Amino acid sequence: MTALNQYQRLEAAGIWRETPQSKARDVIVSFGDATLVLTDPRSETPLAHWSLPAVTRSNPGKMPARYVPGGIDADEQLDIEDELMITAIERVHRAIEASKPHPGRLRGGLMLGAAAIMAVLAIFWVPPALVRHAANVAPPAQRAEIGRMILSEIAKTTGNPCARPAGDMVRNKLAARLIGPDARIEIVPATLRGALQLPGSIIVIGEDLVAGQVTPEAAAGHILAARAAAVQSDPLLAALRYAGPRATFQLLTNGTLPEKSLAGYGEKLLADPVPRPADELLLSYFTRAGLPSEPYARSLDPTGEATLGLIEADPFRTTTPRPVLSDREWIALQEICAQ
Prior knowledge:
By secondary structure, this protein is α+β, with helices and mostly antiparallel strands. It is built from 13 helices and 10 strands. A 7-stranded antiparallel β-sheet has the order 4-3-2-1-7-6-5. A 3-stranded mixed β-sheet has the order 8-10-9. Helix 3 (103-137) packs across helix 8, helix 5 (165-178) crosses helix 13 (327-334) and helix 6 crosses helix 11. The chain is rod-shaped and about 125 Å long. Keywords: Membrane, Transmembrane, Transmembrane helix.
């Protein structure tokens, strides 16, 4: 031990009593091997060996310093006035104590470490896990309600979805043909350059995909692309991440999101690039829907250079699928945003 080695040759005078009734004797106090050695100064005969770890000062702060070889009830006593020896004993004693195992300290450190890990989990793992869980367990009605909330946010930027009786019938028919009976297609009076899938099977397209277009195949392709993109990235999960863990917790407990939790989310969706799914996934959707992929590919890039894979792998490149809509239906849909 470094501290003990430093004081190996230190000696000091002391007064020793073997018992409280014994006569006080002058002794020389020196360090042994983890012991205090008390020696008769005349004969140099060792009188006692005290274990340093057991040495206790019975009168802290007072002089002369009084030490006992154990608890304060010990019979032997040693008085020392030499300040250097007193300092040395205290320092060596602290070093010995520090070298001992401290189960309580270890346990406290482990508990503190566990608490820190729990705090990190609470901050970085629990909120994302809560959001993922809420997205996974949300029933269809809850998804549809959140989709309507997002649609209202989008309408603050684009204007309200277009609606005319004849056009409404056609968009409902198109939704059933491409997606399913519970799906909705909403057309807003704005340019979106694509389709957005909202929670609850709500797909939003802009008037730019309808008005002025010769055929409905390109618009239908964008709708299928939005469906395929939603398979790769759940739109409800994205919305709940935006709303945040606190709003998501209210959704789990009360069944509804706070009214303002999605404020600004519609504007964000419109500003973000429209996601484009992988060609292989998208082509499988076109095949099942009986829809050619080339019109969609040309709407993205009229030259076809950036969408060559969709053009060359068009499932109906050599055959003619049944029309998506009749000419009369397509005209009615094109007029849905007309004033």
